């Protein structure tokens, strides 16, 4: 921890590293980890729960008057009506983790009166620590980071997260991919949305888009992006996106180009655009819909507790 950082950010770093240590120990024998399924293709492990507990204990030991919003335990810990709320994803990329695929992270953000003020995204497999405090810039391992300087979509690497739950709109997503694939240098699906956003902030990728994400998937990463000079919002470019289950991020020039291409697929698009997308879906080959083998499975719930679509098929 650094004495130059805000005290609250230092505590978040301590919490993230404690969770990362638990995750790394469990990764040594991942086949022994107990896994349960929240719904089809959406998993939680004992590691998610232990990491979340370690984070909450660390944060509340320092700030007992703060609130908590965590993926696995919701708001049951911490103060109920605090202006300070820690938003926690203890293991973003659970499906990657349980397969031994080393792309996952810890995500912690502090929201003050509804605005993200501090952010930590920690990748325990690489020991990469991404941090940001509002107005003070974004950092990777204490080195200042900036979004990339690329201005043309054809030169850009764009990351995303594929739909994975019954009830997700696969046909529309395929149309979105068809819009972007011929126009970019490549489309990637790493599997952890918080890390995807951190990579945009660091300039490793030039943009990111995904639907179905919850606030704990995007809160920390969104501050990293903006403090690194990028833009983040929903598909139509509106900045108030944290609980809208749409996230689009990129360098300023690339963000504008992505909004132009993907805005019509937003649930906030105008009626004409929505009608055009519906027609395109109907005209697409095999236009019946979602997961072919799972067509009869129940669709995912849409309430506030809906479990994420983080670029990661879980947690």
UniProtKB/TrEMBL annotation:
Cofactor(s) the record lists: Mg(2+)
GO biological process terms on file: inositol metabolic process; phosphatidylinositol phosphate biosynthetic process; signal transduction
Segments of this protein annotated with the region Disordered: 279-315
Binding of Mg(2+), residues: 71, 89, 91-92, 217
InterPro entries assigned: IMPase, Inositol_monoP_metal-BS, Inositol_monophosphatase-like, Inositol_monophosphatase_CS, Inositol_monophosphatase_SuhB
Top-rank EC class of the record's enzyme: hydrolase
Pfam families for the chain: Inositol_P
Keywords: Hydrolase, Magnesium, Metal-binding
Entry's EC annotation: 3.1.3.25
Annotated GO MF terms: inositol monophosphate 1-phosphatase activity; metal ion binding
Ranges of biased composition (kind: Basic and acidic residues): 305-315
Reaction catalysis annotation: a myo-inositol phosphate + H2O = myo-inositol + phosphate
Family of this protein: Belongs to the inositol monophosphatase superfamily.
PANTHER family, per database record: INOSITOL MONOPHOSPHATASE, INOSITOL-1-MONOPHOSPHATASE-RELATED
Protein name, entry field: Inositol-1-monophosphatase
